[in-house]
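Hi L., both proteins are below.
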Amino acid sequence: MTLIDAYIHEVSKRLHKNKREDIKLELKATIENMLPEQYSEADVKEVLKRLGSPAKVAVSYQDTPRFLIGPDVFDQYTRMIKLVFPWAIFITVIVQVVERIFLYSGEEALLSTIISAFALTIVAIISVLFHVLFWITVIFIIIERSGTNNIQWPFINDTKQWTPENLIIKTIPKDKIITLSDTIFSFVGIIIFAFVYWNSNRLLGIYTTNDNGSLKFVMPIFNQNVLQSYALIVMLCIILSIALTLLKWRTGQWTILIAIINALLQSMGTIVFIFIAVHQDFIHSASIPYIAAIVETTSAKVSFFIDKILLVSMIIVVLANAFDIYQGFRKAKIPTS
């Protein structure tokens, strides 16, 4: 992509899709008319500098020039929203989780508490995002109206005056990028896994309903002692997962190093899962006759059915992790342009 094409792309992407093609042709003709017959890259940069930033040029093609957030700060405004929103969600989830842990009395079934906490967390996230959007908008309106558009926001790089050199950037393919939302979801997933692992004897089990319709925990399905016997290796996997997630966040894209670490971690996790699943005491012994009595069958048939479920689970885990390893190396090998 030439400088002219990159400039036209930056302008057109800010316009309504119905107008883009016509404006692309018009803008290209304008740029070519401003250039000499035999022009160099320096001539192109000079012309683009005279035209100004793509954001301002895009505004000149708009039918409705009046706006809430003007072109001088609009790009900063959208980048600030994209930066703050994921962290607002992450912090809200952490706060809600900590709050529910301290408020949990132990009288209600843990699963009921989690379902209630999940619903309240969704409501809290919506409320927080609404307030964040409102205050960011208010701040940028004040900044623009006061004329202080040159504020250097942290983590927002291109607040300086636009130059044609801004178009000369290394393009990272979409599949290769590790977004901030991916990082946050990875952290949330690690937290959920750790919580479920150390609370499986209170969370994963057989439930009945009380007279008031609420859930009552009867007994666990998995043997917590067996799970705890692998606690050190599981903790190591969790620590490595956190370290890998931080590395992904810092790098921002898939690399061979990240793919290799991911492959080692996925392989380790798969092996640990298989060792736990094939342990003869993995299933809580009292749960098998209890389930057999509920479904009116024998304990042997229940044990056979559980063994099949564990076998299918192991196959799914192996295939899913193998696919994740393959995707990691595939993304790492995608060239940047």
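That was the first. Here is the second:
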Amino acid sequence: MSQRVIIIGGGIVGLAVARELLLRVPTAQVTILEKEPRVGRHQSSHNSGVLHAGLYYQPGSLKARLAVQGIRLMTAFCQQHGIAHEICGKVVVATSAHELPALDKLWERGQRNGLRAVRRLTPEALSEIEPHVAGVAALHVPEEGIVDYLGVCTALQTEIEQGGGVVRLNSAVTQIRECAAGWVVATPSGEYEGDYLINCAGLFSDRIAELAGIKRTVRIVPFRGEYFLLKPAAQSLVRHLVYPVPDAEFPFLGVHFTRMIHGGVEAGPNAVLALAREGYSWKDLSARDVADALSFPGLWRFMRKYPSLCSAEIIRSLSQRLACRALQKLVPAITVADLLPGGAGVRAQAMHVDGTLLQDFWLEQRPRALHVLNAPSPAATASLAIAEELVGRLPFVSAAR
């Protein structure tokens, strides 16, 4: 009897898992339940479109291994399907001497994680690559690039459906019941029965896990990142991906410049608490999501740990002048007049009750279910590798080896 598998979430991770499962177990009956009218509606397409090579992540961590493996799998997938992508390279720039030890640590991580041809740059060598970028030293990461992630999602959906899988759109999950035969998942359009459940619900992964009987030991806290676009006349100031050395005291990468695969240059993002899990502006408000965040002790402990940084992020969200000042640390020639309002994305960040953020991917497995409870950046880059990892853990796949 073929396995009936229900995957909740039609983002890039859920789609990649469905494809991988059908490749390994062609007889499986795979159904994706996605609440939106199309796949890849949120984190998968509301991002900067960067292919991350694994420079930042703790050596030996799941995130480091899957990022390095994932960018190579994703590049091959894009080549196979004719999806727009470019391996344009990235520079990580130290703008002052006190950032040099952190830059050295990044270089060491890149070596240990298996990145190819990462090299140190003097200010003169940096100027040859990025003449308008200011720095006392930099790293050049040639493997990194940009991609059309929505195009990836569309290609994944096509492969799934050609392989016999089913993608049910407009199918928000309202109830999950475990029964003797497996699971019954209720949506407004009907109920779906399955032997095995995989939760890839992203911004709502903790709530889906709770519906399936998992106590919420970690909470998804949504952080919104807002971008500017450079006006056409200023786009020549940036040739590649240009990133700062991350602040070790704050768990985000900092504002950076990203060339986009369909043209243009993004600058940003900041990182502010979103007032809705799918809130892309200050006007987007969900009373339930706000109450959920504010009632969580971990958020208050996080804000007490980083008070000045949290307030600075909010101020930069509200002041284009101060946001520009942050960008000028990397590209001094940028002015407020060069900036246009850009898009925004919301990061589904899992947080412990003590206020620490989960830095690695977080998976919780049960006898008949697998929950992806933390898959922040670089999950889009690593999605095909994440899929291989998840599918390899499924008991009916392991038993078939």
